[in-house]
Amino acid sequence: MRDRIAIVLQSVFLFEGTVMENITLRDHNISEQKVILAAKTIGAHEFIERL
Length: 51
What we know:
By secondary structure, the protein is mostly helical. It has helices at 19-24, 32-41, 45-50. The chain has one domain.
C-alpha cells in the first residue's frame, strides 16, 4: 500500500534557468524525450510549448 502513496508539496518554487532544468532538477541523466513524455502524460506539454 505504501508504494501507492505520494506526497505533493504545496510550496511552489522555480530555480533560475530553463523549464527543462526545473523539471529535471538539472539531472542530466533525464532525457528531453522523457521530459516531453511526462509533460504530455500530465497534460502540461502544450502549456510549456506556449511559454
